[in-house]
Each structure stands twice: as structure tokens, then as C-alpha cells.
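Bumping with the actual sequence this time:
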Amino acid sequence: MKKKKLLTLFLLISGLSFYFSQEVVIKDDKVLLDGKQILKAEKINVLQYSFYSMKDDEEILMFRQMDNETPKYMDDDYYVLNFLTEKTKVESTDFTKILNFMNSRKAMEKLIKWLLKERVINNDGELNPERVQTFKEKYDENITDRTFR
């Protein structure tokens, strides 16, 4: 009897995690969430992406990887998320949320998933201003202001 209850609980939990998982794909400059386009994407180069609103084609988010002016030394690299419409910048050295060595498109897909999970972007591709500020408070390391030049 106990095995049946544990099995039922396991199936319920695994079913819920499958239900809540969202598929994010970037294809042909479109950000698709479960097959529905929510944003437009533009790959500027390997280290920079821009994301645009579907409503008015306004650039809402820019991702840029910075080498901190030391191209051969990677331990000081960081990335900048610039939420343009909210005039908010987040700088972080923690690449674990978006890391993908061989494919910048896959890294950007992970970034969008992360922003969806944090509710910074909703399922329609719109920024939530309150959640942008919460995101900044959680993850911003203020690297530019701490760097001697």
C-alpha cells in the first residue's frame, strides 16, 4: 500500500513538472514560447543579442558579454542585461544560468527561460517593471562601478 502511495505521488509530481515546463526556441529571429512567438531576436554578434517587443518593435532587452578589457583572461568576464524600456542594467559574473559554450542561440534560449521563470518577462513577451527591479536586486553585481580603469 505504501509503495502505491509513493508511486502515485511520484507520478503526480513528475506530471506537474512536465506541465509547467515551457519550451523556448529561437528560430529565424523569432523567440517562440511553446510554438507562439513572444519576441523578436537579433543576433548582433556572438557576444551580443537584442530582443524586441511584438507590439511596437521596440528594443526591450539587450544582452552583451563583456571581457572586462582582458580578452585572454576569462575569470573577470561578465555579462550585462540592459532592460532598455525600464532603464535598468544588471551586470553579473554568474554564467551558470545561461552557460552554453558552443552555441550562443542556446544560451539565449536559456536566458529567456530564466527571465520567464523569474517572471521578468510574461508569456506574452512583456516586461514586468516590478519584477525587473526584483531581478536587479537579486542578481546585479554592479561590476562597472567596482572596476578600476
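The C-alpha cells above came from a reply further down the thread. The beta strands are 24-27, 30-33, 36-45, 48-53, 59-66, 78-83, 88-92.
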